[in-house]
Known about the structure:
CATH topology: TIM Barrel
Shape: globular
Distance between the termini: 10 Å
CATH class: Alpha Beta
Helix content: 40-55%
Structural class: alpha/beta
Strand content: 15-25%
Radius of gyration: 17 Å
Amino acid sequence: MIRVGPSGIGGVKEAIDVLKQYKKAGLSAAEVEFTYGVYIKNNEDARKIGEVAKKLGIMLSIHAPYYINLASNDKKKIEASKKRILSCCEKAHYLKAKYVVFHAAYYGKRNAAQTYEMVKKAIIDMQKVIKKKRWNVKLAPETTGKRSQFGNLDELLKLAKETGCSFCVDFAHMLAREGRIDYDEIFRKIKKFEHIHSHFSGIEFTDKGERRHLITPIAKIKELLKYIKKYKVDITIINESPDPVGDSIKTTKLI
Length: 255
C-alpha cells in the first residue's frame, strides 16, 4: 500500500477539521510537526485528534523538534534531546502515531563510528523508557541532507538491525547529501522491511548538502513511484515541500 500525505495538521483547534479536509482530498497520511516544540500540550487533545485520524483512515506520524543532538559534547544537551524526543513519543502514543521522526546528531569532531555509538546508546536508553511507559511508538531517525549530520542510509539500517528502532528515508535529503540518487540501490536495501516511512519533496542543494525544500516536480514524483511499484514496498510518503498538501494531492493522482 502507498499512503500519501503532507507535513502539518495545523494547530490543536483546527487539526480535526484539517484532517477531514485531507480525507476529502484523498490523502491517507499526515505528519504532526513538532519541529519547533510540542504544541499539543494536553494528552486528551492528542487522543481526540488521534481517534478522528483513525476513523478517517489517516496514518499519523510525528516530526520531533530540530533542536536535537544525541552526540553533543555537552551531556546536558544529550539529555535535553532525549527528553524532547520522549515528549513526542508520549504525544504519539495518544495520537496513535507510530513513527517519531528526528534528525539524530551531528558528527562534530567525532568520526562516524564514535557518533554512531553515541546515537545507538541514546536510542537504547529511550527505548527502555518507551517500553516502561508502554507507549506504542517507534523511534525513526531520519536520513539527513547535510554531510555534517549523522544519518546516511547505511547508518540508519545498522541502527535498525542493532536496536530494533525504525527509520525514515528522506529521498530529497539523500539526493542533497550525495549529489545523486540511486533508487535501485536504496530499494534493494529497504525492501525487506514490513513498512517504510518516508519524506519527499523537491530540494535545492550545494556541495555541502541541503539548502531548502522546493515544490516537488511531477517528473520526480513519477520517478519515485516507478521504483516503489517496481519493488512492491508498503510505504508512507510525507511531502515536505513549501506546498505539502498540493504536492501530496499531485502524488495521489499519479499512483
